[in-house]
Structures are given as C-alpha cells and as structure tokens.
Prior knowledge:
The complex is a heterodimer. Chain A has two domains: 42-135, Immunoglobulin-like (Sandwich); 151-347, Cytochrome Bc1 Complex, Chain D, domain 2 (Orthogonal Bundle). Chain A is 41% helix and 15% strand. Chain A has 13 helices and nine strands. The longest helix of chain A is centred in the N-terminal third of the chain and has 35 residues, at 4-38. Chain B has a single domain, classed as Cupredoxins -  blue copper proteins (Immunoglobulin-like). Chain B is built from two helices and nine strands, in the order αβββββββββα. Chain B has helices at 2-21, 126-146, and strands spanning 32-40, 43-45, 48-52, 56-63, 68-72, 77-81, 87-92, 97-102, 115-121. The radius of gyration of chain B is 24 Å and the shape is elongated. The interface between A and B is medium-sized, with 22 and 16 residues.
Amino acid sequence: MTTPTNRLERFALAVLLFILAGVPVALLGYQYFVRLALSPVRVIDITAAAPEAGGFQPDAIRVAAGETVRLRFSVPDVTHGIAIGPGLGIDIGHVDPGQVREVEVTFDRPGRYTVYCSTWCSPNHWRMRGTIEVYDPSQPDALPPSQPPDPALESLAARGINIDAEHPAETIPDTPPSPGRGAEITATHQNTLPADLFNPAWRQQHSPVEAWSMLVAHGMNQPDAWDVVAHLWTSSLQGDRLAQASTLYAKNCAACHGEDGSGTGPGAAVLQAQHALEHSDMPQAGKPTAFADPRIMLGGRSEIYYAKIRRGGMGTGMPGFGQIFTPEESWMLAEYLWRFVFVPAENRP
Amino acid sequence: MTRTRLLTLTPFVILALLVWLVSVPVSNRPVTHNIVMTADQFAFDPPVLRVNQGDTVRLTLQAADVVHGFYLDGYGLNTRIEPGVSRQIEFTADRAGKFRYRCSVSCGSLHPFMIGELVVNPNFPFYRAVGITLITVIAVLVYLRKFPPAPV
C-alpha cells in the first residue's frame, strides 16, 4: 500500500540518487565525451610526469599528415618544459603543476617527431621523451620515413675517427686568448694567412690546435696565433644564431654541463652518482665534459662535438639529441661550445 | 620646587641624548651582500638572511633539482628559478622586519613548507636602545627616591 509518506520517501531517494550519480556522470561525461565531441579538432590529453613516475602518457601518438590536433599537457608532479622537435619550433615552455597548457599542431609531412621535456626535472630528465608518428593518410600502414643518414657522421666513420675517444690538446694557451685582438690581427694579415682557415667547412673538420700549429709554422708568434684561432673559431656564430644557440644550451645542456661550461651543473652530481653505481670500473666516464677546459676542448673539432650531440655518448650519461634537434641546431650548439674556451666569461651573454 | 625636580632629571636627559646621537666607531653604513641562494626540494640555502636596513642584497638564485620559485613577502619580488640557469635579483632592504621568502612554483609534496626568512634589522642599533632604556630606569629610580610620592 502506498501512503503519502512512503511516496515522499521514494521521491527523496530519487533526488539523492540523481545527485549522487548525476554529478559524476555529468563531469566525466563532459571531460571524456562532450568536450571531445564539441571540439572541431582531435584533442589529445597528455600527462607529463617525471620518467620514474610514468613520463609522457600516452608516450606514442599517431597522427595523420595534414590533420590538426590539439595537444593538452598537464603535469602531476613538478614543472616540466614541453617542446616538440625536430625542426618544428614548437616550445610551449614551462607547465606548472595545476596548469593545463595546449598547443594546436598540424604535421605537414609524414615522419617521426619527439615530444620532450626541456627543463631539468629529475635525475632521469633526459629519458623524458615521447614519440609522435605522423603517417601518410593514403598509406596508413606504411612505416614513417626514417631520418636520412647524417653526412657528417658518415664522413667521420669513413675516416675512421672515433668520436668516443678523448682528444686532448697537446698544447694550450698560457693566457686566455682574446678573440677581439685576434680579429684585428686577422684583418691586417688577411691576405697572407692560409686560405683554409677562412673556410668554415675546413674549420669544422680541424681542431684549434691544428690551426694554431699551422699559424705558428707560418711564422706567427704563439699568443697571436691563439688570438687568431679564438677569433676564427667564434666568428661563424653571431647575431641571431648566437642567441638561438645560447637558448638551446641553457635549456638542454646547462643542467649538466653548467651554464659556465664547467661541467658542474645541478644534474652533474646526480648523473655521476648514478653512473658510479652502474659502472664502478670507470667512474670518470659519468662526468659531464667541462667545455671551459682548454686541455679537453682544443684537441677536438666541431664535427666531433656535433656527432656527440646528435648520437649521444656511449656508456656515459650524454643523451642523443638527434631526435630533437635539426642538423643546423646541432651545428650551432657545437660551435657555441668554443665560446667557453675562447670568449672571456664577462663577455658571454 | 619644580626647578630642583627638573635639575635632578637634566643629567639623565643629557646622557640619553649622548647615547642616542654620538657616533661610535662601529659603522652601520649600508653594504652590499652578495649571496648565492640555492633552492632544492624542499629548502632554501641559506635558510635565514640577516641584513641591516638600507643594505643592498644581491641574490644569485640557483635551483639544484627541479624548477623552483623565489617569492619575497613584503617586497613583492617573484622570480622563477630553472636548474642550470642562475638568476640575479637585487633589491634594497628598505623595510625593517622579518619577511618570509618562499617557493612560488609548486615543486613537490612538501612545497608549502619551503620557506626561508629575511631578517632586516632596524638601523637604530640595539645597544643604543638598551642604553637609553637603562638611563630612563635609573632616572626614574633616582627621581622617586628624591621626591617620593605623597602617601595615598
């Protein structure tokens, strides 16, 4: 028998159920269905956590070439920097916990791109990468084209140069060289100096010590020869390219190699401790290279540093940046490293 | 009667003025503090900064593990610190008091407790204040002894 009280109680129960079930259904329904259905482009929600906490989730995304997608990033733990490369110039910058930052991207050509963290965020920061596979809509099952072999790396291999070996300088300047003085000397002796020195491609394949020996054999006194080398080795990176290289260095290299190139950034100690645990037989290998040390740097060449940047170090903590940087960006960084030995600290940006 | 009372107090007043105004070799001219401040999870190093009012504070901020922030109460300074990129900020400590500096970028579970303290000492040195207080106390005692208040 239904009494009025009974009916009211049933009504109250219905209201209660409506609230208890309705609120979550409405919220989750909006988050996972309505919002996505209303959006004119495909929305992909990505959680970016430190690698030990899961990294990018999802860490592999497939997108058709020409399709516009909206990538929405949120972070659960600490601040991460979000960027996508190579060659796209997409850098959202910092995403703080609690924020959602989004970017709309259209990938024009099929290929493999990398979404990566651009701010030191954990001892495993450099493992924080995800892939975006862009496929050709007419052949969705075809593998994306792989990167063509790098001519600089091939050439090094063909000449039998071991990029993992150390290339210590047999001789180093007694006093820090001055690129400014070097520029003046170069300007006055322009016509008598070996022509090779003015060829950027030659400089990429030769070490400063080789160039210096050439100048000394040519009759120049030793300090002057260092000044000229300092000028030439820092001359090709100027203006916009210098600013770009400086930003790339600060975001991707400084955390370990230090902003002053001393090899003592905040990540260095962590990496070294990790490395010592895994390879107790060669603890030194885990030490980030000190670009400011002429003994280490001056025997090397731009092409070797370029190769190291692109491929990474073998058995060291140095990650490969070939999936992140374009060849041009890698060359800029390789050339930027000379500034730590050749440009006095107070003249660096 | 009033004159003798005033006369009793005069030496104390002169003494107090001397303590207040006479310059002593200890200088409190403003200085510049160059301080390297390292932020890591979940503390600032140094945790306490002590300066005098009027001093210039030049901070080089560094982050050792993840991105942190530096927010200074009372001075309204706010900076983001990225690992590997040190930041310089400079300010004049023109307000006396204790001010908290805290991390302004959520940096992990104990982020709310990442706090340090800037102590800006007032420029009126402590020992002068102590001197004047002591002289006042002695003056009152002497005065009461000489001119005891009429019994109620």
